[in-house]
Fold these 2 entries.
Entry 1:
Amino acid sequence: MKVEFCRHNLSKEELREVEKVIKSLFLTTAQKTDEFEKEFAGFLGVKYAVGVSSCTAAMHLALLAWGVKRGDEVITTPLSFMATANSILYAGAKPVFVDVEKETGNINADLIEKVITKKTKAILPVHLYGQMADMKKIKKIADRHNLIIIEDSAHCIEGQRDGIRPGQLSQAACFSFHAIKTMTSGEGGAIGLNDDARALLLRKLRLHGMTKSGSQRYFGKEYQPQDMEELGWKYNMSEIQAAILLPQVKKLNGFLERREEIASFYRKAFSGVKDIRMPVVLPGVKHAHNQFVIWVDPRKRDLIINNLKDQGVGAIVNFYPPIHLLKFYRRTFGFKEGDFPVAESISKSTISLPLYPKLTNQELNYAVKTVKEVISNN
Ligand SMILES: *Cc1c(COP(=O)(O)O)cnc(C)c1O
């Protein structure tokens, strides 16, 4: 038995949509992208979605669109994928980390005000594993200090907290369609927002800062010369990506139901097991279940993963090391072990287990049995 860590859920429907695009005129950003953006914005309950090439690109552009620049500071969490902090660096700003909550691994909102300086421009929370950070508290802080909020919502499309969804209390929420995210086109991303002017600006910034996209110019009645008003990037979404994503939006809620089932099966199976801890799901949270994570003895973590692999259960780590301890961040900013002890301790203990709609009950049972055996034998 081999239980893969992740298997995508693309079907005939997505194939048919891609086929239509391949048989059509435009492969780069055009009507399919528009269609996907409308559908996705509708799902999120925000006014606009802007399709881009990745969540990294989405965060970079969102920071720029709200004026984050060289010399600014952006507060974020060290317990995330490096993309979160890298996007801040791309915007020319400095990432300022605060430690995380030990129950959830999310940014500890109570520590944010301590690191706010005159240079602070933004807060960039991550909804780790699919459980939203405390957006109400973060919003209050942002308002008190006149800061913007950009959400790294790579793990959280469908989640809610206290009735709040991604994109509702922030300037923008950024999503990922990378291969192991809930909805995928292999690579891809989107920005969800409610701001009319910024939606236009982001559409420009994702394509060199050009006034009109290729398809807009081609389908226009008369020849229109190109102009460039801002320095933009090459971050646009292709029609092929949009075609793969479009049918998935309608299926998101159904897929989430299956992931909820799997997550609660794991949770029941592991609760009370010696040497397995799990992140706490806080009251008021509707979890998006992008990752199912267990926390084990850090001295045995790697051995456990290797044993799981030997037994045919795919497991990965989200995220180790924490961003501040990556070589580049140590070298550039002088971070060292002990700087963010809670993030470090979670990072060292963490194992992500298979969680996707195609996981069968048989595979799930095998994964649970194997995890329990491996942990009790180590
Ligand atoms: C996957 C991921 C990203 C990056 O997404 P891309 O689409 O690959 O750029 C950012 N943040 C978190 C928390 C992620 O898991």
Entry 2:
Amino acid sequence: MKFKKLVKFDIKNFSAYKSARSMCVQGNIWLNANESPINNKFSIINRNLNRYPESQPKNIILKYAEYSKINFENIFVSRGIDESIELFIKIFCKPNVDKIMYFPPTYDMYRVNAEIFEIKTIKVFTKNYNNFDYDAIKKNIKCLKLIYICRPNNPTGDIMPKKILINILNISFGKVLVIVDEAYIEFCYSESIVNLIEQYPNLIVLRTMSKAFGLAGIRCGFSIAHIEIIKILKKFISPYPISTLTSNFIENFLNSNFINFMKKTVSEVLKNKIWLYKKLQKIKFIKKVFESFANYILIECFSSKFVIKKMLSKGIVLRNQNNNLGLKNCVRISIGTKIECKKLVYELKRLSYKFKYK
Ligand SMILES: *Cc1c(COP(=O)(O)O)cnc(C)c1O
């Protein structure tokens, strides 16, 4: 597949920014990047912060490759996956000509970036996955560039069946890139489809340090894809997306100890989720508790605004999804510690008693 053809302009005649760091030279007097020559007290182990970082820090890619059992060459690192979600649109989509597809209700950043860059969108509504609308892809195959699939889906917590995903990959093969956002995959790891990247070179899988790994503050995410796509991404990313502090941190801490800690956290959260799911089902004013593959539960109630306000007055912060397509009066609850879950259930129950006596 010639992915270069999918890029919105003639890639051959595009000259990428050549950062000082990208020109691999050896030397000991560095006068090529307008950096400060004076190192400062903020230096960390083996790194001087007065120097620019590598664009694609090799050590953290190696660490993630080892953890995920994915080849080094198939991994691209960015400032969180929000940066790559934006980058794909910047690289592949011509404003007011090309289209992207996504499946609402879902993560809002696909829409936001499409709007910012004036890219047309095709929204395929998937209340359930029966009668999936493959025609929407076939009909638009000429101008469709990217398909964003959030899997597991934020905020509903459901997961697109593998069979449907594979059908989408087949229909779009050679024509459209399919981006599968696996931000929450550690909570249902056996569902990952990352092993399909060899078979489907039009597939890009997104992974992040922000959720299960508990490192949202560090801003680090990975795009996993065919080597040809990785090459294109490297050509267009801003010169220094990952700070030295971030890569140094990941390099030092993404070891087996930390991975075991992450897995323990995940099983703790999953236990709390099962507990909370059962409790929520017993609360009268909750009309529906959505089943979830991730670390949150969506509920539907009589008035999301009211419930959110009441919980906030008890110091509990929830996320309103009322404005998300098809999610009227829905509230998303992230799974907290057991104590936090108990406090939430206590307050929701108290609220439901009040209703009874009204
Ligand atoms: C949180 C989230 C992101 C953002 O990830 P970062 O790596 O922190 O930028 C992307 N996609 C989904 C579905 C998310 O929920």
